[in-house]
Write a structure and sequence with these properties.
The complex is a heterodimer. By secondary structure, chain A is of the alpha/beta class. Chain A folds into two domains: about 100 residues, Urease, subunit C, domain 1 (Roll); about 300 residues, TIM Barrel (Alpha-Beta Barrel), CATH 3.20.20. Chain A has 13 helices and 20 strands. In chain A, the strands form five sheets. In chain A, strands 1, 2, 3, 4, 5, 16, 19 and 20 form an eight-stranded mixed beta sheet that branches. In chain A, strands 6-7-8-9 form a four-stranded parallel beta sheet. A four-stranded parallel beta sheet of chain A has the order 10-13-14-15. In chain A, strand 2 and strand 3 form a beta hairpin. The longest helix of chain A has 18 residues. Chain A is globular, with a radius of gyration of 20 Å. Chain A starts with a strand and ends in a 5-residue tail after the last strand. In chain A, about 60% of the residues are buried. Chain B is α/β, with parallel strands linked by helices. In chain B, the strands form two sheets. In chain B, strands 7-6-5-8-9 form a five-stranded parallel beta sheet. Chain B has a four-stranded parallel beta sheet with strand order 2-1-3-4, with helices on both faces. In chain B, helix 2 links the parallel strand 1 and strand 2. In chain B, helix 2 crosses helix 9, helix 5 crosses helix 6 and helix 5 crosses helix 9. Classes of the chains: A alpha/beta, B alpha/beta.
């Protein structure tokens, strides 16, 4: 029998309102006992006094790069990075090679994910080959294990096709995750359009390119009644649009990423390609609006948009470099910094990184309860560390927070009762 | 006046007025060499200057080459068509390979904004001079513009300068605006809104509402080159309308100060941004700009390689 006993930690589960000091016993991949003082013979015991014991974090938005781009990341390395960051489950986007637009690719991903360091929930493509022309066989993809559909990285170009995608997915109760962008407005852009892009002489991506996409997809969500989730919200007007759509009764939700909460366009600095992603880092006013939206719950979830790229795509002229940054291993630390700033409570951070993502895509986990999966993260909120490339478990180091000091981190991650990450000397 | 402490010249942004003055004073003292019969001094003998041009350029490249040769430095040129660029070598790779040959200065012209900054992060010893990066900066052009203005006006502070045309895609305009602001002049810009960058006023300029307003009381007019490929981006409807509304003709100059000078980074599209009649008047200082370009580049090579005023 595999038993793990976490002693004396602060048990923090926002989904069930639990916040008390006590023990947690995991047995055969399940939560066996929760709270109070637990005695268990032959269990592996961890002294969690002074630490936070929370549901394993869930990331709605990662790129694991396998199959096809294994030099950037694999399912093994990406889930190892997830575990190191406190995540026990990740949803992987379909822009692999081949694209995850058929049962065979979904099954391959799930096969490779067996025994990996985190649960992997594939998100299938909306259109075949992400080409924006024909719908994928969504029912079959769902049956194979896809939890949602998205053409992430590319907006679905035609409103009519997006409408059909939402309607068809709704037939099977499946959500659509929208990458919102009006490509004719953003074309050629390298960073947020504003004073900084003007100063650096880089072509801009106006916030309105995102907003037009968000408004379109929210309007289509109202039209179709489909379950629609807006990915990587980066600007104030998108937040307002989301708020209005919710008030109008649409079944919509949104996520943002730690870099939009912590950084802004000025942080592109002297053409730092590790600060280049799409949507781009926005103005300080946008950042403030996104922060408030997350604090108030208008934006429900934090997702990393973990997008590994090698030096081959990043050690280039800024306009030649690929969009995207890694995030799995720094997300929690950045969010803990926002707790220190007073934007969110620790409970809110846990909620937006576990319970909310689970709820939004209907995934298991996200709470600590007897009989539930033994997906747990132990966090030391006061264990400062500096982000350096050598400590990443991701195969790529294109992280926007390199050199930053973060206030804390995951010290122990347990997925399905198995220890997937343990910080030596921490407990 | 302080000495020279910079290893690279990546842009005019961040340069102090004292540093700019040091460059201009050095250029003024070296300019005389260009009028001698024997146009060569031994100052940089044994030093190597690489001209690394990813974008076609005749004028800037020959200007750098002359500047280096007149100071007795050895030079060689690489262009995109002759370098391994066409073989898929990255800029960083090329930089490392170049550096293995131990050049003292790498002059780089590149279509990507920030390419010189990337190069500067990867070379260990050489100095980098930005000879124009995308739509970012063209600092040696900015300095030669300042030098030309100072020669005519005797000063750089308190002048009124109009820059007219495609500000958005002009690295010349960016460097000129930064340099003029640093030196205490006021800059106004004018052009179709499609050719003004977003939040242009944050560069420290005002935006004029008409040609007359742009030229009212100015000491200096700087016209920018219209790039015909902008037509494809539908940034303005036709060269005809551009010439009529944004082209400079002698009659416009009645709004300017009587001793106004007209500048252009060249080559001029006569009949587009400037009427052919502009070639005849007393205003044009375009050829002086070219001559000062050599002097300014000599000054920069000198300062970067010796780290002291002459």
């Amino acid at each position: 029998m595999n038993r793990i006993l976490l002693k004396g930690g602060r048990l923090l589960c926002p989904a069930s309102g639990l916040d008390q000091t006590g023990d947690l016993l995991l047995e055969d991949g399940r939560v066996a006992e929760l709270g109070g003082e637990i005695a268990a013979a032959d269990a592996q015991v961890f002294d969690c006094r002074g630490l936070v014991v929370a549901p394993g974090l869930i990331d709605l938005h990662v790129h694991l790069r396998e199959p096809g781009h294994e030099y950037k990341e694999t399912i093994a390395s990406g889930t190892a990075a997830a575990a190191a960051g406190g995540f026990t489950a990740v949803c992987c986007m379909p822009n692999t090679e081949p694209v995850n637009d058929t049962r065979a690719v979904t099954e391959l991903i799930l096969e490779r994910a067996r025994g990996a360091s985190a649960r992997v929930y594939p998100i299938g493509a909306i259109t075949k080959g992400l080409a924006g022309a024909e719908l994928t066989e969504m029912a079959e993809l769902a049956e194979a294990g896809c939890v949602a559909f998205s053409d992430d990285g590319r907006p679905v170009p035609q409103a009519r096709l997006m409408r059909r995608a939402m309607e068809y997915a709704a037939t099977f109760g499946m959500p659509i995750v929208c990458h919102c962008e009006e490509p004719s407005l953003s074309a050629g852009g390298q960073m947020h359009e504003g004073p900084v892009s003007t100063r650096l002489g880089l072509a801009g991506i106006p916030a309105e390119a995102e907003v037009l996409g968000v408004e379109r997809d929210l309007a289509l969500a109202r039209l179709t009644g489909a379950r629609v989730h807006i990915a990587h919200i980066s600007c104030a007007d998108s937040v307002q649009a989301l708020e209005r759509a919710k008030a109008a009764g649409a079944r919509v939700s949104g996520e943002t990423a730690p870099h939009y909460l912590m950084l802004c366009d000025a942080d592109v600095g002297e053409y730092d390609t590790n600060r280049k992603m799409n949507p781009p880092l926005r103005s300080p006013q946008d950042r403030q609006a996104v922060r408030q939206a997350l604090a108030q719950g208008v934006i429900e979830a934090v997702a990393t948009d973990h997008a590994p790229h090698s030096v081959l795509e990043k050690d280039l002229e800024f306009d030649q470099a690929a969009f995207g940054v890694t995030g799995l291993e720094t997300a929690l630390g950045v969010m803990l910094a926002l707790v220190e700033e007073g934007l969110l409570t620790l409970a809110q951070v846990i909620e937006r990184m576990s319970a909310a993502p689970a709820r939004l895509l209907g995934l298991p986990g996200g709470r600590l309860e007897e009989g539930g999966p033994a997906d747990v993260v132990v966090i030391d909120p006061h264990r400062p560390w500096t982000v350096t490339p050598d400590q990443f478990r991701s195969l790529s180091a294109n992280n926007a927070f390199l050199g930053r000091r973060l206030p804390g981190r995951a010290v122990l991650t347990i997925c399905g009762g198995r220890i997937t990450h343990r910080l030596e000397d921490a407990l | 006046m302080s000495g020279w402490n910079r290893r690279h010249l990546l842009g005019l942004e961040g340069m102090s007025a004292a540093e700019i003055e040091l460059v201009l004073d050095t250029a003024a003292s070296l300019k005389e060499i260009n009028q001698r019969t024997i146009k060569k001094v031994p100052t940089l003998r044994g030093r190597t200057v690489v001209n690394f041009f990813y974008e076609p350029s005749t004028r800037t490249r020959s200007s750098f080459e002359l500047a280096a040769k007149r100071l007795s430095a050895d030079t060689f040129s690489l262009s995109a068509s002759t370098s391994s660029l066409t073989k898929g070598e990255t800029l960083v790779d090329t930089a490392r390979n170049l550096e293995a040959m131990a050049p003292d200065v790498i002059v780089i012209r590149h279509s990507s904004a920030g390419a010189p900054h990337l190069l500067a992060r990867h070379v260990k010893h050489a100095s980098i001079i930005n000879a124009g990066d995308g739509t970012h900066e063209h600092p040696t052009q900015g300095l030669l513009d300042l030098m030309t203005i100072r020669e005519h006006k005797g000063r750089l502070d308190g002048l009124e300068v109009a820059i007219i045309g495609d500000i958005a895609h002009s690295r010349v305009a960016r460097s000129a605006i930064i340099g003029l602001n640093t030196m205490g002049s006021r800059v106004r810009v004018y052009g179709p809104r499609t050719l003004l960058p977003p939040a242009v006023e944050t560069l420290g300029v005002s935006v004029a509402g008409s040609m007359a307003e742009a030229l009212e009381g100015v000491d200096v007019v700087m016209m920018l080159r219209v790039q015909r490929e902008r037509l494809k981006d539908v940034l303005f409807p036709s060269l005809r309308e551009y010439a009529q509304r944004f082209g400079l003709a002698p009659h416009h100059l009645k709004h300017a100060k009587p001793d106004v000078i007209v500048m252009h980074p060249g080559p001029v599209n006569w009949g587009v941004e400037m009427s052919p009649a502009m070639a005849e008047g007393p205003w044009s200082v375009i050829l002086e700009q070219v001559a000062n370009g050599v002097a300014v580049r000599m000054a920069l090579l000198y300062l970067l390689l010796t780290g002291e005023a002459p």
